[in-house]
Amino acid sequence: MFPQALFPLFVALSCNLIAQAAKTIFYYLKSGKWDLHWVVASGGFPSSHSSTVTGLSMAIGMQEGFDSTIFAVTAVFAFIVMYDACHVRYYSGKNIELTQQLIKDLKDMEVQLDNPIYEEQLKSVLGHRFIEVLGGFVVGLVFPLLFIPLFLG
């Protein structure tokens, strides 16, 4: 048995780690290649952002009640994070891809780009597609139920 007060923290961190590890497995299933960078990468399936905030919200609901104020706060927080991951961060990543392609095309046309900013390598995978967010949401719903016996049972 672990201290009950740590249940939400344990669940949130565990859901994050589970989703991050799962990214490596799903990448292998998709590509046939092992790439351990997915253990720490943002983007990909399932969303660790979504799994973390959903797991936190579920754990709070299970511990404090789904009719509690703190559950309402964490649920709203979770929806904001998931919306951001699926929309704002996803389209930011798409804008980076587009910008990088434009710079490459200009260089191929031998346009002189003297500013060092054009040499910066930006990370293009920032956000998630809806299915990746949904996958993280499912991880965050399921795993708190598995951890109940450790804390609350």
From TrEMBL:
Record's keyword terms, sorted: Membrane, Signal, Transmembrane, Transmembrane helix
Residues in coiled coil: none
One family name in Pfam for this protein: DUF212
Signal peptide (UniProt feature, chain positions): 1-21
Transmembrane segment boundaries: 68-86, 130-152
UniProt protein name: Divergent PAP2 family
Protein species of origin: Faecalicoccus pleomorphus
